[in-house]
Amino acid sequence: MEEQNESRKLTNAELELQADAAGAGEVKRISYAGLIARRFFRQKSAIAGLIVLGVMVLIAVVGPMVCPYDYTEPDFAAINVPPNAQHWFGTDGGGFDLFACVAHGLGRSLVIGISYALLTMVIAAVIGTAIAYVRGWGEKVGMWILDMLLVIPSFLLVAMIVRAASGATGWLVLILGLTAFGWIGYARTLRTMALSLRERDYVKAAKYMGVHPMRIIVRHLIPNLGSILIIDTVLGVIAGINSETAYSFLGLGIKSPDTSLGLILSQGSSAMLSGPWIVLIPSLVLVVLCVSMQLIGDGLRDAFDPYSRAAGSVDDDTDDDGDQK
Amino acid sequence: MARFVWYITKRVLNYVVMIFVATSLTYFLASSFMSPRSNYESRTPRPPQESIEASLDRANLNDKTPIMERYQKWLGGIFTKFDWGMTPQGGSVNQEMSGRIGASVKLMLFPTVLSIAIGVSLGVYTAQRQYHWQDRFWSGVASVFLVIPTVVLAILVVFFAIEINSAAGTRIFYVTGLQSYTGGNVFLEFLDFLQHMILPTIVLTIISAVGYHLNQRTYLLDEMHADYVRTARAKGLTRKQAIRKHALRASLIPTSVNVAFSIAGIFTGAVMTEKIFAIHGLGEYFINAINGNNIHGAVAVAAFSGVCTLAGALLADLFAAALDPRIKMS
Amino acid sequence: MAEKNENTMAADEVLRYELLESNGPKGAPTGDPVLSVRDLHVSFNTEAGVVHAVRGVNFDLWGGRTLGIVGESGSGKSVTALSLIGLLDDNAHVTGSIRLRGEELLGKTDEEMSEYRGTKISMIFQDPLSALTPMFSIGDQLAEALLIHNPGMHKADVRKRCIELLELVGITDPEDRLDAYPHEFSGGMRQRVVIAIAIANNPDIIIADEPTTALDVTIQAQILDILKVAQRETGAAVVLITHDLGVVAGSADDVMVMYAGRAVERASIDTVFAKPSQPYTMGLLGAVPKPHVAATTRLVPIKGNPPSLAAIPTGCPFHPRCPMATPECAQNEPELLPIEPSEGHLVSCHWMDKIREKGLTFEDVYPDLEPLNPKWAEVPRDQRPVVLEVKDLVKTFPVQGKGLIRRNKGTMTAVDHASFKIHEGETLALVGESGSGKSTTLMQIMDLVKPENGSITVLGKNTADLRNNRERRELRRDLQVIFQDPMSSLDPRMPIYDVLAEPLEAQGWKKGDINRRIGELMSLVGINPDYVDRFPSQFSGGQRQRIAIARALATSPKILLLDEPIASLDVSIQAGIINLLEDLQTELKISYLFVAHDLAVIRHISDTVAVMHLGKIVEYGETEDVFTNPQDPYTKALLSAIPIPDPKVERTRERLVYRDGELVSASSLTRRG
């Protein structure tokens, strides 16, 4: 009991530090990103998705280099031939090598899908959280405008813009057109998410410390929407690829001489009897591409939210296992 | 009741303002991105300049007239005669659209009902079997269908239909249009209608059933873990009974909201499906309008879609109020 | 029964001592137990590894008696309860034996268990707000409980019984209330309905899992009374699970204290409180401030934090926190054994014999009690400058109908002409139940804008005179806030360094100064400064609250507003935070505005008290005056409702209930009482 007599003079803080030094409660140290990565790579389907996506990117990047034909130069000696050693994916009615077209189109799809997803998420995150944070009249007006912009299906509005696209810069116009109306729905969802975040005590605490509103949005609100933003960006890539396919198929997006998966489908759909490979191959590529993105998205969702699956939970509120958000 | 009527009135007034602003913005957007003039200028032989100007003026589509002037005139027509303007060719948008709404409804009605029935049942079925192979299988199938582009799905369906046709040696499935029989036999006429309908119905049903399935599954899973389900089990209900009696009811509220929007969607048709199966509905009309620089047609379709969306929103509120005792009507 | 394993046999042997548990209001148990739990183990597979939530728990239940299971979060008490009724998640791995009148319940399927649930065993849950299905009326949910087990019951009989049950749990106008939906009921009313459902089929066992934790203190007293009525009506054995020793004191006959998934002490109610013999129990009882006696000494905290169930220390799980621990304690885990062969008092401690022989008590085991810090005595409080003054503060909110029609129903006055002032270095406690307006008052001060009515003066500056955000920011340096839940008040995405740097950056500090200041702050609140790059989730609840305190102190404020700063912390670490706050006040001469509902803590820490009720301050004065001689009827009712951690006091107390401005005795309100 001698030691205890000595501790009389110690303040509570010093006692606590002593207890800590004794190593009573050693906390596990894994960085947040490390933890997410560990959970992500534990899922076979997510790894499969990542590998397939890697292969797709490889085809899009390396394909045009290794393929002896260019997507702009027809081979008049081989018109509408099925896949063979010379033309790996066959050719279409104009003699264009399908592998060259698909590889180029895949690149287009990826570029459009990824740029669209990134741009919309940035715009949606800033506008959505800002509307949630300002409250009062600003919030009311902001929500009214968002609702108003959502009244008319954005598919129709985008179609009006991208129809003007030309052959050369069509893909740029498509990205801009898709982004111009694509962020609205996401902004609305993110605002709903931010509504609960803005009531968190750490946001209030920052406000009461005199932290600037813009800084609160950038340092607290957006990072805490991080998991949702990342997942939505991955799924947004699928949405972008889908849109490209739809508009190009309708003759509104990518136009010849440029080509894309949607455009190949549109051209092939009229010759389904004479050259089924022309529609089947790009269809398959699109399905594989979208499903692989979906697997990655699902994997990320489960990695961010371990409770989405039966990872196990303890009803007695043990809040200290260090792994939870 | 009076309060309820007042509430609905206020809501509708707000919606009218929204549609007005949204439609006007669409008008300006369409006017700046479409050029009806090019329809005439690209004709061979090119018509005389005066005739081009006269045609454009008649349709109120001349880009040499200031935009505000054209807008006022167009708006005046809508408010005084409910006239949504003319196509560049001089046709009436009202007339062209009215026939197409019917075709869209014919196309959409059955798949909508079917997809709700199939999707919701599958959602309930799979949620109750979470982590079992049934759930993995059906939810896996659904997430594949969720992400593949509609075009790809439709093309694959058409491809297999053609294969079946040629294997059977006779035309079982028609891949375009809604009707081709011209005789007087009612039975044959109906059969012919079914042969046309079946492929687009399959495509549309899959597309929207997938959404219902995955949503219903999430809603039910959320409710299944609610505290009140545990209370129900503590009373002596088995887990299955507690889910069926307590959780299911609550999970159907958000689904009913989605149903409301689907009902509104019946009237606006489906752009991709109509285009691929050559069904002359509203969706196809919109694409044709855009490709044909038909500004008034495109804006009219957009406005009609807007009205349907907001009607769906109103309907969704009423559904929720009817199903959820926490929301009081009076 | 020949196949009983060794553990069970040994447990039976030890549990014979239960029959000697006679030091309570009901004497010793007689007859056969209704339920016997032997060697119960429950584990879960989780992300963090296998969690051993329950590790070899044994106990018996007798009809008409109440067993209080006391423990902190993570002690395994709720998991124990759920395993009795078979409502654990599917991923739970349960072994051992649970026998209901000799019949084994473990291993039964969900369908088989459903025959027992509601009829033989029923349960009352913690959160009444989410325990009832929002889609169905109260009557339907009550009737369902009856009809599941009596499918042929006549409609009129069902209705009659439902009305009877609602009357029993003290719901007025039961006939009309049958058609009401849960959302039309308050939390306390809903908990009454849950109790009515639980007793509908006259069960043998009622499990109440923290039944009053989510409720206000005055409602809590009523619910505990109703639970007693329910027990009397059904003759059931009650398992009362709680972290609050005061709740057990008035309601239980026997007590089992759990720590890290095991029972560490078990005895009759009076024995536990009079002679706690396990160091953890001693600490738990000693660390809580007593609401019924004036504070004279500092609280003695149990150092450290409760262990994570995924990483339970070897040996005695309490040894890292135990002042008596020796290296031997870290070797093997002690068994639960009788401390006195003639009594039913079971203790699990390697030093049991020493404790018994020397009669060691809390004062002996834990470091000596120190007198309360002299509170800056040079200048008398009322002669010091006033740092915060609130005059006639009013805050109203528009009340909106929920759901489809959001019409304004008028306004609700959350704060109604509240006035008070705080001197330098003084602590004012603002007490009230939920909805009393205490937190709103605090937020009104923090907003630093002109209030709807009245005035707020911070350090001589009237908030109405602040012209822009720059002037407000300057004032915020001297005025900081600490929130209730450190989980939510620290951004989970920010390392501690950034958390602590935030207020300093907002005040425009330079990087070097910030670094230095953060080191100082970490030591000041007792967190190792090497941990600056860790994230909040890597700290325990108590440590997180210390970090929140460090952040509030960063700019050396003169006034600290504390919104229920210890309410969400475990009992054993509350004392540490209270001591820290007291140390800081002595050292830094800060003034506290302490918002709380826990009167015991307030009596300990505050100089003056303001009691709020429905937005009004109904009583305002020196702490001791208010506690010993309350004037307002509401204050009297509030004081009479606090559960006191002393069974003898608790049993003889007459509760007062505040009704429409008058006081009535609680016993006159309970029917059939």
From TrEMBL, chain A:
It comes from Parafannyhessea umbonata. The chain crosses the membrane at residues 46-66, 114-134, 141-162, 168-186, 221-241, 277-296. One of its GO terms (cellular component) is plasma membrane. Its main location: membrane. Residues 106-297 form the ABC transmembrane type-1 domain. This is Oligopeptide transport system permease protein OppC. It is a multi-pass membrane protein. Signal peptide: none annotated. Keywords: Cell inner membrane, Cell membrane, Membrane, Peptide transport, Protein transport, Transmembrane, Transmembrane helix, Transport. It is found in: Cell inner membrane; Cell membrane. One of its GO terms (biological process) is protein transport. It holds the Pfam family OppC_N. Belongs to the binding-protein-dependent transport system permease family. OppBC subfamily.
TrEMBL record, chain B:
Its main location: membrane. The chain crosses the membrane at residues 12-30, 107-125, 137-162, 193-214, 247-267, 295-323. The keyword Transport applies. Gene3D superfamilies: MetI-like. InterPro entries: MetI-like, MetI-like_sf. Keywords: Cell membrane, Membrane, Transmembrane, Transmembrane helix, Transport. It comes from the Bacteria. Residues 101-320 form the ABC transmembrane type-1 domain. It is found in: Cell membrane. It is a multi-pass membrane protein. Pfam families: BPD_transp_1. One of its GO terms (cellular component) is plasma membrane. GO terms for biological process: transmembrane transport. Belongs to the binding-protein-dependent transport system permease family. This is ABC transporter permease. It comes from Parafannyhessea umbonata.
UniProtKB/TrEMBL annotation, chain C:
Signal peptide: none annotated. One of its GO terms (biological process) is peptide transport. GO terms for molecular function: ATP binding; ATP hydrolysis activity. It is found in: Cell membrane. GO terms for cellular component: plasma membrane. It comes from the Bacteria. Keywords: ATP-binding, Cell membrane, Membrane, Nucleotide-binding, Transport. The keyword Iron-sulfur does not apply. Residues 37-285, 388-639 form the ABC transporter domain. It is a peripheral membrane protein. Pfam families: ABC_tran, oligo_HPY. The keyword Cell wall biogenesis/degradation does not apply. Belongs to the ABC transporter superfamily. NCBIfam families: oligo_HPY, PRK10419.1, PRK11308.1. This is ABC transporter ATP-binding protein. It comes from Parafannyhessea umbonata. The lineage of its organism: Bacteria, Bacillati, Actinomycetota, Coriobacteriia, Coriobacteriales.
